[in-house]
């Protein structure tokens, strides 16, 4: 099903919103090395609240990007891992991660120049 992501009602746009979310990018990245438990994901993704982590994991499972496996043990053990669809998504996200790391100095310089120019005009 092809759609028009520029139309706010298009399912394609909703999917782009999901995979473009900062937490989705970081969670998928955290799971590229294999399955993790909820608390392990929370430790790797610094700054995410438990509520947002729970919501994002549920959405990713619903979208078929993650698998949630609950083991019948005490204490309860639940792991999350990437599906094949999630592994496919991890590839372009890894490219974005590498781009950000390689270009961060240029972005920082551009921000500083912009801020300096706007500080001068605001005075």
UniProtKB/TrEMBL annotation:
InterPro entries per UniProt: HTH_HxlR, WH-like_DNA-bd_sf, WH_DNA-bd_sf
Residue ranges annotated for the HTH hxlR-type domain, each copy included: 10-108
GO molecular function: DNA binding
PROSITE patterns (alphabetical): HTH_HXLR
Highest taxon listed in the record's lineage: Bacteria
SUPFAM superfamilies, alphabetized: Winged helix' DNA-binding domain
Keyword tags: DNA-binding, Transcription, Transcription regulation
Protein name: Helix-turn-helix transcriptional regulator
Protein species of origin: Amycolatopsis dendrobii
């Amino acid at each position: 099903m092809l759609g028009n992501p520029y139309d706010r009602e298009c399912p394609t746009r909703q999917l782009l919103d999901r995979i473009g979310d900062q937490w989705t990018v970081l969670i998928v990245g955290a799971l590229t090395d294999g399955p993790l438990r909820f608390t392990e994901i929370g430790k790797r993704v610094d700054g995410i609240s438990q509520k947002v982590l729970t919501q994002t994991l549920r959405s990713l499972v619903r979208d078929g990007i993650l698998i949630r496996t609950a083991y019948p043990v005490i204490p309860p053990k639940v792991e999350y891992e990437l599906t094949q669809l999630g592994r496919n998504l991890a590839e372009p996200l890894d490219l974005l991660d590498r781009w950000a790391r390689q270009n961060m100095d240029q972005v920082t310089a551009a921000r500083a120049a912009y801020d300096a120019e706007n500080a001068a005009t605001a005075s």
